Amino acid sequence: MYNQLIQPYLSKINFALGRKPKIEKRKDWRKFIPEPYQAVVTITADFELAWAWRYVRELRNNKEAVLKIARQERENIPKILELCDKYNIPVTWATVGHLFLKECKRENGKAHKEIPAVMKYKGPFWDFEGDDWFEYDPCSNYLEAPEWYAPDLIEMILKSKVQHEIGCHTFSHIDCRDEVCPSELFVAEINACKREASKLGLSLKSFVHPGHTIGNLNSLSELGFTSFQSDPGNILGYPVRHKNGLWELKRTYRFFWREGWSEKYHIYRYKKIIDRAIKSNTFCNFWFHPSFDKKFLHQVLPQIFSYLDLQKENIFITTVDNYVNWLQKEMTY
């Protein structure tokens, strides 16, 4: 209880002192910020529904809580898209591949037999101790089990007025660390995503590791991806290009409602981060789970988007893929 009371206060102090987000400084910042802008902003949604939460320690053996999170995400996404349309804000939707499916079924008692078995492991946020990674897959359809499938929401995203990006978040929200995820498992998961995306004419280029479980980077590059995102602890900085050609984009700050902060302070904080990005000529990488609290959706997010809209002369607001495409071209000159 003490930590819950003191943490919001300490966070405000660190923010006031300019410690978080940490600002990286480079004299050659123009290599990373297109003319005539002073900063770049991308926004990534980790689009997961129930897949992300089924093994989370705090929700273990609480299937109804997991389904409730997924239902809230479903309720929130249309409103998020309305705000995107209103303020012309594009989002990169890092999508769990199973959400592309309209339906699936078990064959001889096994779901998705093309995916190798996931071994038991301990993870930073969730553990897997079962025998069947797809034990919670209803093997039904999006009308009967909308918490596990989302072709309707993907269609809604693609039909938006704004040119959003569909990225990849693995097929079933696996832990991607090299020590627990053999390359054959990773490749099978990603190929399943690419196969479903291709049916909609989509080519997946931007990747987000579930739970920041960074791994299998060489395989990711070989599969045609151009970027991944890391979370080293709130950074206003610059992309880093790896030897395998992948661009690493460090995450800056998460969109969600923090207990202990007022609505006014939430809005102030996000606006101030945007101001700092402009002043420091850096890349700002916001991210969120679309299942976030409705207080954030209705009271804070519209104010962030409105402020970004007002700053469009100073900020290049784009999808991850568009930004990386610009970086690729810039670095060839």
| Helix-strand sequence | HEEHEEEHEHEHEEEEEHEHEH
**CATH fold description:** TIM Barrel
Helix content: 25-40%
Find the count of extended strands (DSSP E, 2+ residues). Answer: 14
The level-1 CATH class? Alpha Beta
**Name of the CATH superfamily:** Glycoside hydrolase/deacetylase
**Mean pLDDT score, rounded?**
96
- From the alpha carbons, calculate the radius of gyration and give it in angstroms: 20 Å
Cα end-to-end separation: 55 Å
The low-confidence runs, each spanning 5 or more residues with pLDDT under 50, are none
Strand content: 5-15%
Q: Given the structure, what is the number of helices?
A: 8
The CATH architecture category equals Alpha-Beta Barrel
How is the main sheet built? 6 strands, parallel
State the secondary-structure class.
alpha/beta
Q: What is the count of distinct domains?
A: 1
- The general outline is globular
Describe this structure in words.
There is one protein chain. Strands 2, 3, 6, 12, 13 and 14 form a 6-stranded parallel sheet that branches. A 4-stranded mixed sheet has the order 7-8-11-10. The chain has a two-stranded parallel sheet with strand order 1-9. It has one domain (10-102, 142-332): Glycoside hydrolase/deacetylase (TIM Barrel). Helix 2 packs parallel to helix 7. With 333 residues, the chain is α/β, with parallel strands linked by helices. The protein has 8 helices and 14 strands.
